């Protein structure tokens, strides 16, 4: 087996030595036992993948690193032989020798693996931060299987009457539109949505009238609107009580997309013509919400959360990315955690996932065509967060005008508290913009000058 060798410069060496050990990177001495090193390979492969450099020493209580590679390529054969037994060279692993100053560092690149990788000691590990954590309990193993998509919670049965699905308004409406010649129960059994006399999770999510009764706190969508651009919303900046969207998956996708658009388009920003309504990329909203609903992990007792801020929309979906999908390859790879949901919802009239597997690509394409910043995707410990950025939805200017609808005046301090603007100078410039538009003016009250000065609405 031939492994590529790359000659690198001192500058490149310095960049490698500056990398910190993390969830994605690890450094090992060439003196480590190859067998013990498989613990790290197992941990990275069972998480999101990463890189291991063999031949780099940690010194000064691990605060610094030094290059201390193999004298020859053959000196690393012991590592290659052990790895090859457990992790054959292929799509999921690759090796490269980095050659500098007459020594070789072996770089192992591990991709997220769709299978569970067992280390040489017979144990299963998973990476968290810079640690390799041993998975000990059966519950932890089952969670790892769900995360990797080895099986899906949608195939579990629920201990509820079959009539909850077979005699629902939702299934009758679907049958009339799609398969009018069939009886619901017979069709559900043919689709393997009923096991024995119990409905599967997928059947309940798609065809019951109220899945939330059987799957509370894990099958609805919560929508929030915050009057701020801050990193997190607070109770003080919450525009109204959170909205809960319930029903079968087909309906909650449609209703959520419509409600989010309604909330966004009711917001305004200030331009040269005054306060104007905002339009968010409609296709992107639809595709990202659909993706969150169809690919979330329904074994996790948490709803999907959609948070609308003054400068972005966040869609947070329970569960990590399934199978071999990562943040880097998500637009190019396909892996359906909930294959039954994806397949059957595509049969509905005006299916939300018309182009199966192309949803996120369509979203990114629309945003690119509109010359907006591309969405960000972040994989958190137990969820995936997609953020769509835009011009402010409800600008500081609009918040001030709305405040003055019910208040006589507003000060700089009150304006900053209301809008989340941290700088008094920036707040002052906001007031000046509104003044120049002929919307507000300084208060004539002589007792309110300097820091106490206030602004009133022009009637």
Characteristic terms for this protein:
16 helices, Methyltransferase, Cobalt-precorrin-4 Transmethylase, Domain 2, about 35% helix, helicase activity, alpha+beta, single chain, Heat Shock Protein 90, flat, about 450 residues
Question: How would you describe the overall organization of this protein?
Answer:
There is one protein chain. The chain is an alpha+beta fold and 459 residues long. Helices cover 34% and strands 22% of the residues. It is built from 16 helices and 22 strands. A hairpin with a 2-residue loop joins β10 and β11 (198-199). The mean pLDDT is 86.
Overall body shape: flat
CATH top level label of the largest domain: Alpha Beta
Q: In DSSP terms, counting alpha (H) and pi (I) runs of 4 or more, how many helices?
A: 16
Q: What share of the residues does DSSP label as strand, in percent?
A: 15-25%
End-to-end Cα distance: 81 Å
Which structural class is indicated by helix and strand composition?
A: alpha+beta
| Percent of residues in helices | 25-40%
CATH topology of the largest domain: Heat Shock Protein 90
Q: Biggest sheet, strands in spatial order?
A: 13-12-16-17-19-18
Protein name: ATP-dependent DNA helicase RecG
Keywords: ATP-binding, Helicase, Hydrolase, Nucleotide-binding
GO molecular function, one term: helicase activity
InterPro entries: RecG_C_sf, Schlafen_AlbA_2_dom, Schlafen_AlbA_2_dom_sf
Summarize the structure.
It is built from 16 helices and 22 strands. By secondary structure, the protein is of the alpha+beta class.
Write the layout of secondary structure elements.
Blueprint: E1 4-7, H1 10-18, E2 25-28, H2 34-45, E3 49-54, E4 56-59, E5 64-67, H3 77-86, E6 93-100, E7 103-111, E8 125-128, E9 131-134, H4 138-148, H5 163-166, H6 169-178, H7 184-190, E10 194-195, E11 198-199, H8 201-207, H9 211-214, E12 221-225, E13 243-245, H10 249-265, E14 268-271, E15 274-277, H11 282-295, E16 304-308, E17 312-318, H12 339-345, H13 359-369, E18 376-379, E19 383-389, H14 396-406, E20 410-411, H15 412-419, H16 424-436, E21 440-442, E22 454-457
Parallel strand pairs: 1-6, 2-3, 12-16
Antiparallel strand pairs: 3-7, 4-5, 6-7, 8-9, 10-11, 12-13, 14-15, 16-17, 17-19, 18-19, 20-22, 21-22
Helix pairs in contact: 8-12, 10-11, 11-13
Domain Schlafen AlbA-2: 21-134
Pfam family, one: HATPase_c_4
GO molecular function, one term: helicase activity
């Amino acid at each position: 087996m031939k492994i590529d060798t790359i000659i690198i410069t001192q500058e490149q060496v310095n960049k490698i030595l500056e990398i910190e050990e993390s969830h994605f990177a690890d450094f090992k001495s060439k003196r480590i036992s190859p067998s013990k090193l498989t613990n790290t390979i197992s941990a990275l492969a069972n998480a999101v993948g990463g890189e291991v450099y063999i031949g780099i020493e940690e010194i000064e209580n691990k605060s610094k690193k030094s290059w201390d590679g193999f004298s020859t390529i053959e000196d690393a054969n012991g590592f290659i032989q052990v790895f090859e037994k457990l992790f054959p060279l292929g799509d999921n692993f690759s090796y490269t020798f980095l050659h500098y100053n007459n020594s070789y560092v072996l770089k192992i690149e591990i991709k997220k693996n769709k299978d569970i990788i067992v280390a040489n000691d017979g144990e299963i590990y998973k990476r968290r931060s810079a640690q390799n954590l041993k998975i000990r309990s059966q519950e932890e193993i089952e969670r790892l299987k769900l995360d990797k998509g080895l099986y899906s919670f949608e195939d579990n049965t629920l201990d509820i009457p079959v009539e909850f699905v077979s005699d629902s308004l939702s299934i009758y409406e679907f049958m009339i539109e799609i398969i009018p010649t069939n009886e619901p129960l017979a069709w559900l059994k043919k689709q393997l949505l009923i096991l024995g006399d119990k409905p599967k999770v997928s059947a309940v999510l798609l065809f019951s009238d109220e899945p939330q009764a059987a799957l509370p706190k894990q099958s609805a969508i919560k929508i929030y609107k915050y009057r701020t651009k801050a990193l997190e919303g607070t109770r003080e900046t919450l525009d109204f009580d959170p909205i809960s969207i319930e029903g079968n998956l087909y309906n909650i996708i449609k209703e959520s997309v419509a409600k989010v658009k309604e909330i966004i388009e009711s917001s305004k920003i200030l331009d040269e013509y005054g306060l104007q309504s905002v339009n968010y990329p409609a296709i992107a909203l639809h595709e990202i919400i659909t993706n969150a609903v169809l690919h979330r992990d329904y074994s996790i007792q948490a709803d999907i959360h959609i948070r609308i801020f003054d400068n972005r929309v966040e869609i947070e979906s329970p569960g990590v990315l399934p199978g071999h999908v990562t943040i880097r390859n998500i637009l190019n790879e396909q892996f359906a955690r909930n294959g039954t949901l994806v397949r059957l919802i595509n049969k509905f009239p005006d299916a939300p996932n018309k182009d199966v597997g192309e949803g996120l690509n369509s979203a990114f394409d629309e945003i690119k065509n509109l010359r907006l910043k591309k969405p960000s995707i972040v994989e958190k410990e137990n969820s995936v967060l997609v953020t769509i950025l835009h011009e402010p939805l409800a600008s500081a200017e609009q918040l001030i005008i709305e405040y003055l609808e019910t208040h006589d005046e507003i000060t700089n301090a009150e304006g900053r508290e209301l809008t989340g603007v941290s700088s008094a100078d920036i707040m002052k410039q906001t007031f000046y913009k509104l003044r120049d538009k002929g919307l507000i003016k300084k208060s004539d009250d002589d007792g309110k000058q300097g820091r106490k000065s206030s602004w009133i609405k022009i009637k």
